[in-house]
Amino acid sequence: MAFLFLLVCVLPILVQSADNGLARTPPMGWLDWERFRCNTDCVNDPDNCISENLIKTMADLMASEGYKDAGYEYVCIDDCWPSHERGPDGRLVPDPERFPSGMKALADYVHSKGLKLGIYEDFGTETCAKYPGSEFYLQTDAQTFADWGIDLLKFDTCNSYSSDFQYGFPAMAFYLNQTGRPILFSCEWPHGESESNFTAIRQACNMWRTGLDIEDSWDSVVGVIDFYAKDAQNFSSFSGPGGWADPDEVIVGDFGLSYEEERAHFGMWAMFASPLLMSVDLRNIRNSSKALLQNRNILAINQDPLGHQATLKMELANGYVYVFTRTLVDNKIAVAVLNKAFNGMPTSVTMTGKDLGLTDESGYTITDGFTGDQIGSYGPTSEIIQNVNPSGIVIFVATPK
Ligand SMILES: *[C@@H]1O[C@H](CO)[C@@H](O)[C@H](O)[C@H]1NC(C)=O
Ligand SMILES: *[C@@H]1O[C@H](CO)[C@@H](O)[C@H](O)[C@H]1NC(C)=O
Ligand SMILES: *[C@@H]1O[C@H](CO)[C@@H](O)[C@H](O)[C@H]1NC(C)=O
Ligand SMILES: *[C@@H]1O[C@H](CO)[C@@H](O)[C@H](O)[C@H]1NC(C)=O
Prior knowledge:
Immunoglobulin-like; alpha/beta; about 30% helix; binds 2-acetamido-2-deoxy-beta-D-glucopyranose; about 400 residues; glycoprotein; TIM Barrel; glycosidase; 2 domains; alpha-galactosidase activity; EC 3.2.1.-; disulfide bond; 16 strands; single chain; 12 helices; 6-stranded antiparallel sheet
């Protein structure tokens, strides 16, 4: 009852709540969840438990190993950071063993590296891992995060009712706004809804999750890409500067993907204008994965200021090959040819310029999306033939002449 009463009071002034000036391009950073989960065992696994040490170490590496220069900015803590009990004042308290310096000090440290700090909470009564949730504490928690100097809040949906999301997430956006501190609002809403009001989601959230948690496997990546290919409710059309559909973290550099799969995964997240939150151990990442995460050509597609999410243009080779396109600034067109087949040899794909929306009669210069190398010159009637590796991708960018 208390919750509903509160909502009725705040609803009329919510309309512009995501209007915080943030996320003009897809947010980039690092998030601990996929790789480090809810590891709280700092006694037996001190280097990998969710703690201020882990976050500081990753912030150090983001700054020293080129990630920050490539655009990665937010260092984000997921679930399992708080104590199991709120303090006497009702405020959340970070676990004293794992965050002995407190969140304010951690935020100061991260800021000193030129980076930003993200934190996690849950709209329900408890987080997914059963730490205190924000229900009935929305205003207190928003203010606490602002007081600590937090820059991003990921807000989960465990232990709550999906019918409440449409009220609760805008309410939290409102309270974040009221703190006066710009805090990027990363929502799990609409997760769990059968049909969603993306207009309302976009008004509240700077990014919103499109599906289940990503796992460390190619199947999980393909599941996301299939979902984006279907584009139910045309959700692609709601993504853009200020608010982004979020397919969940980038798992490049982890255990589950081959090099071809990593390129395909990262290339598609770039095509989708997805937030790029790496979840990887930056202390021992493969050189090839690191280079991919810092590939300036692919990042330029992801960060294109128009912010268009790629949509499916063609399905070829019995549905094994997807061709996605998106427009970039200056009438450029990015094309991704993704091969989901696993039959051992590259698939040859033939398209015409017109198929891909290359309709300008003056023609286009084509460059490789990964290397930036020129690969040719095409017009609307040109035949474009690409060999695409199994579980692989070809991306090219067409620039009008
Ligand atoms: C709060 O919302 C107002 C109105 O939409 C906006 O102008 C302002 O920048 C927002 N402030 C923050 C801190 O998000
Ligand atoms: C979706 O949300 C917007 C903004 O809150 C609202 O104006 C509109 O009526 C909602 N649409 C539906 C179908 O509920
Ligand atoms: C999505 O957009 C397409 C093309 O604009 C339109 O034909 C289709 O009906 C839309 N689908 C939905 C579910 O809105
Ligand atoms: C990875 O890069 C580092 C630094 O550039 C280099 O010293 C090392 O030999 C490389 N490792 C491999 C396996 O190529």
